[in-house]
Amino acid sequence: MDKIGISEKIKQLSTKKISNMYLSDFLLTWDKTMDELEAVFEVAEIFRDMRTNNISPKVFDSGLAISIFRDNSTRTRFSYASACNLLGLTVQDLDEGKSQIAHGETVRETANMVSFMADVIGIRDDMYLGAGHTYMKEVSESVYQGHLEGVLEQRPTLVNLQCDIDHPTQTMSDALHLINTFGGIEKLQGKKIAMTWAYSPSYGKPLSVPQGVIGLMTRLGMEVRFAHPKGYNVMSEVEEIAMRNCQESGGSFIKVDSMAEAFKDADIVYPKSWAPYKVMEERTELLKTQDHDGLKDLEKKCLENNKKFVDWECTEELMKSTHNGKGLYMHCLPADITGVSCEQGEVEASVFERYRVPQYMQASYKPYIIAAMIFLSKFKQPAERLMQVLDDNVMRWG
Amino acid sequence: MDKIGISEKIKQLSTKKISNMYLSDFLLTWDKTMDELEAVFEVAEIFRDMRTNNISPKVFDSGLAISIFRDNSTRTRFSYASACNLLGLTVQDLDEGKSQIAHGETVRETANMVSFMADVIGIRDDMYLGAGHTYMKEVSESVYQGHLEGVLEQRPTLVNLQCDIDHPTQTMSDALHLINTFGGIEKLQGKKIAMTWAYSPSYGKPLSVPQGVIGLMTRLGMEVRFAHPKGYNVMSEVEEIAMRNCQESGGSFIKVDSMAEAFKDADIVYPKSWAPYKVMEERTELLKTQDHDGLKDLEKKCLENNKKFVDWECTEELMKSTHNGKGLYMHCLPADITGVSCEQGEVEASVFERYRVPQYMQASYKPYIIAAMIFLSKFKQPAERLMQVLDDNVMRWG
Amino acid sequence: MDKIGISEKIKQLSTKKISNMYLSDFLLTWDKTMDELEAVFEVAEIFRDMRTNNISPKVFDSGLAISIFRDNSTRTRFSYASACNLLGLTVQDLDEGKSQIAHGETVRETANMVSFMADVIGIRDDMYLGAGHTYMKEVSESVYQGHLEGVLEQRPTLVNLQCDIDHPTQTMSDALHLINTFGGIEKLQGKKIAMTWAYSPSYGKPLSVPQGVIGLMTRLGMEVRFAHPKGYNVMSEVEEIAMRNCQESGGSFIKVDSMAEAFKDADIVYPKSWAPYKVMEERTELLKTQDHDGLKDLEKKCLENNKKFVDWECTEELMKSTHNGKGLYMHCLPADITGVSCEQGEVEASVFERYRVPQYMQASYKPYIIAAMIFLSKFKQPAERLMQVLDDNVMRWG
């Protein structure tokens, strides 16, 4: 893609109705209009093309990007750092301690105290069902109010780097990967994607990826087949959103009972482990009361229950049943690979390895997706600003 | 404030005698002349106005700002990071371990080894009475010597981010808040400020805020009324400084025995908990010998003693006794708020809440104060350099 | 050195055959040609001169520099941060946990996942004999492949910040210190350097410094005398490299049995403690199996054995036997100084103190050496690019 191509993409962006994105957070994909989602895809692509052409979109001369990770994170941390660095922002970590669920006054005060020169706040808070999204809303309202009150010179906008409900930077990257793999967003209409549970010898994996996937892919007109063992259901609110989405998009949301049913003739498969909703709910309560024995018991019970569904594995045999035997395998990584990272896991090693490069590509969109989310929330006239970046033609390096 | 206004402020700065600030540290406010203190206020305001006008004062193209925090710190860390980022410096943390008091050879060597490309060193070391300020002097002398010896290409200057004696970035922010609240530094002459102890169910809070406040506000011609329960006295050296200050400034330093006396007709009140000097001294010794049982005993004793003074609380009733019932409530934050952050604390919730926004404003000056301290120690002709920033008119973002 | 002088140095650089450095890692000095090593020295000097002249060689507008430290490190961390900052790169730490030896699939995946916008990866992994260098090769191959596969937009190059075999950023700084002390690289021909073991009351110090020194100094035509107590030998592969080097350089590699023999008439002495090869091998096995009792036993045994050689100390008496009694004392720091940092250590206090400033100078080259290594691996035409930096004449600060 050369500079003329980038310029064409920017012109396309300028036709979108996206004025509401200015100074707004990116918390849940279903809070955004289709134009807004498409704008994120387009700006992400523009940034990627600019980078390939060694053009620097450093639109901030200085400014802080706060990161709050309430869970260990290497990959998301680097994606966020990459996005901020690309735009000229410096990441500053706020380490509140992993086990602490802050509330009310403390959240408001801390949010303001750290934000005097912060343009963006990225938060990952996926450990507590019912808490992550709520916490993000509290932070958002705190800095909004702080700006109104004259405390904050600018208003920092939030990017959800994973909460208990949605994982928009992941699923938007997933979707952009599909758009590029299938040759355009319109090509996704009617495509069959199997979002299924898969066995893993681990415990407590968040629900935000399956929830985010069914909440976004139904939006794009896809036929989403959702399968999991009994008890491993996700938040019913998100399932309702998925169903509502289909009415507008022409997509469909179909719950089936096995991997086999979900995989049959699928264009894409996304088999992945997660904890049962009930377990996550129970876990949240135990964490709140610091009931360590209860937590150990729960983990043990849960791992034992998992073992009943050890046959939920993405095998070569199952892959053969996908569309022309060539369905696209996806994973948000890291995956539990049978015989590689564990004895028995989510996916057969040969399947994983065959799709290794596409998976890495899938992940490679994340820094650009995050940069696009930040950019669209900070610039009132994003297309004009991008055109100016193109004209300025500052080299990223060299 | 528009660009013409900023330009006027810069002209005012150029009349100050501040040549000694060049390449000097900012460790104690009482080591500085009035012209120097006023220069810090003025440059802080200029930076704030520049930011409001989206003008970037990024005077460093590259360079490191070392941070050494010997105590947990979120707010000061972010203020320092914000200031450095504004000026173009990159923060690099030096984590020496919290419990270690380094001495002599080690300090000299480490200070030099990390400073080959460091322009600034910010240190917070408030845990050990008799150690924090001493450590800063050691670091300062080490890098001064290192520069003389040709080891360091530049000479890093120090900013005291809180020591055992003073907390200049806090109190200078406090003072700038007062200057802006009352309409000018000359308006502070004769204003009554109550710096008083207040009850908190916590232990070991440093003395540097009350010491810093009485050491600075007496400088500005204020009537400082200082009150604390018996035994909760601060360093006598600082009280002497406060008294000496008054002779020059026309202010006064009055010790009273109760919150009520201190609050009577006060224009400003600053009720805040701290540990008794004797306890801090004992604690330092116990920390040095790693006497964990001794430390536990001391904490227990101290908390019990605190409880005798649970009525030292900033109540609505007391606030009514201040000037016109409208004295300005201040706190360096976080405060122990009765019924909010603890059962019984320093301040009634309604008082705190009524002054929440002013308190946030008070804190908002800190990044600018720190940036001003750094800037004035690194530029020989600060007014000229600021005028050039104004002329260059580089956008902070956009 | 003024701008004309810098320009002369750049012209000299352009005569070197260094095209293979482009996009290559810097892992072991003996993998590099003499022209390549000299280029590193020259670029380091050019960067130092530029800094003295306040010229900024910020050749990256944005970009990440990953750091992976598998061992605590303050000094190397700051040197790496300084180098990256000088060039315009932002450091992002990858904290994989100190005790974990990652393998195969995990290394490949993580290396790619963090490198989407990474230009450089600096790794320190010196704890496990047989693992550090191997790990670096795995990371290097992973990102090389990732770039070929289109996953990574650019190809990050590696800098070895210390492995189990070599410590090139240290020894190249040491060598540059010698070049400047003796007045040119050609002056090192035939100079006598004593690389000897010295007693220290510590355990498990890596072998990479002595190995790196004998592997590099023999290259520069020096007479390297290597001495250690029985059992404290280093990797035999590196000794063989040292011997081979001499055939080309005209230097010599002589093993002697005592400090006294090594020091006799030496121009330079480098007495330093390290663990016996056998112990490090055993330790690696025990660490792999997490045998904590075994590790404790090994440490105890090793410390006891060390004590037999307490007389391996760099004394004033021994220093008198060096060339004209004025041999240059070197240490990679921190040193174990008798009566200062320990009761009985590697060097007498008065010797250390007399050579304190030269040692600090020795260390001061490291940020420039690292910057040179990075620069030479990222720019196809380094001399042209440096000349452009000189012409652009951007101020580092002011």
Percent of sequence in beta strands of chain A: 5-15%
Class by SSE composition of chain A: alpha/beta
Mean pLDDT score of chain A, rounded? 95
Examine the secondary-structure arrangement and name the CATH architecture of the largest domain in chain A: 3-Layer(aba) Sandwich
- Quaternary organization: homotrimer
SS element count, helices of chain A: 16
CATH topology of the largest domain in chain A: Rossmann fold
What is the general shape of chain A?
Answer: globular
| Largest interface, C-beta within 8 A | A-B, 33 and 34 residues
The level 1 CATH classification of the largest domain in chain A is Alpha Beta
Largest sheet of chain A: 5 strands, parallel
Number of domains of chain A: 2
What letter string, H or E per element, gives the SSE order of chain A? HHEHEHEHEHEHEHEHEHHHEHHHH
Radius of gyration of chain A: 21 Å
Written account of the structure:
The structure is a homotrimer of 398-residue chains. Chain A is α/β, with parallel strands linked by helices and 398 residues long. Helices cover 47% and strands 11% of the residues of chain A. In chain A, helix 8 links the parallel strand 6 and strand 7. The longest helix of chain A is centred in the first third of the chain and has 19 residues, at 34-52. The A-B interface holds A 59-64, 66, 88, 90, 92, 94-96, 105-106, 109-110, 112-114, 116-119, 146, 149-153, 378-379, 385 and B 48, 51-52, 56, 58, 74-75, 77-79, 81-82, 85-86, 88, 90-91, 333-334, 337, 340-341, 357, 360-361, 363-364, 366-367, 394-398.
